[in-house]
Write a structure and sequence with these properties.
Elements: H1 6-33, H2 46-57, H3 74-78, H4 80-95, H5 101-109, H6 119-130, H7 139-148, H8 150-167, H9 174-189
Helix pairs in contact: 1-2, 1-6, 2-5, 2-6, 4-5, 5-6, 6-8, 7-8, 8-9
Bound molecules: fe (ii) ion (FE2) (2 copies).
Length: 190
């Protein structure tokens, strides 16, 4: 994998471990919220798939190149430094024969989110945000909230990151806002 230095290697492994631990609870929460379950892959448990998504997600943080099967959208194209690595990682895995659509989807959209989020995407995004190496203000509270309700915690996190981006006068990706809307709608209806 490209440029997996020790620091980043630590982050991907911690994210993989946490995503793996969260995946079942996230899927159960999805079920109770009436959101669609993860599409199963025969013989592979969800926790393993979440682990793989975690290992892959930031494997190409410093990469560049073409992603013919995972084209960048307009906003991603303008912010390749921050956003391209998701498509690069999905392309890398696809090119090596991975055909688990749920894992590829989570890896592809872990940066900007998606209007139709899946349990694997949510588990990965939440683990990415609260893995034990994260030290930003409020992370402890978010970790506690994640234990109570992983989906509500993820919504909180997405609101604060999109709010931060907007406050800086930067573009907020519409998928991030749509993901918040989808999950909040489900939470309000529960
Ligand atoms: Fe990432
Ligand atoms: Fe990450």
């Amino acid at each position: 994998m490209a440029a997996l230095d020790e620091r980043r290697g630590g982050h991907v492994v911690r994210t993989a471990e946490l995503a793996s631990g969260l995946a079942g609870r996230v899927e159960e929460r999805f079920r109770r919220l009436g959101l669609p379950p993860e599409e199963p892959v025969g013989g592979v448990v969800l926790a393993s798939r979440a682990y793989l998504a975690g290992i892959l997600h930031d494997s190409h943080r410093d990469g560049a190149g073409l992603t013919p099967d995972y084209p960048l959208d307009e906003i991603e194209g303008r912010h390749t430094g921050k956003l391209q690595h998701a498509a690069l990682a999905a392309q890398f895995a696809y090119d090596r024969g991975l055909r688990d659509r749920g894992v590829l989807f989570a890896v592809r959209y872990h940066t900007v989110g998606h209007p139709a989020p899946t349990p694997l995407l949510c588990a990965l995004m939440l683990a990415d945000a609260v893995e034990p190496g994260r030290t930003y203000d409020g992370v402890e509270e978010l970790r506690k909230a994640a234990l109570e309700d992983p989906i509500a915690a993820l919504v909180e996190r997405l609101k604060s990151t999109t709010g931060f981006v907007a406050d800086q006068g930067l573009e907020v990706h519409p998928y991030a806002l749509a993901q918040i809307e989808t999950l909040e709608w489900a939470l309000e209806g529960s």
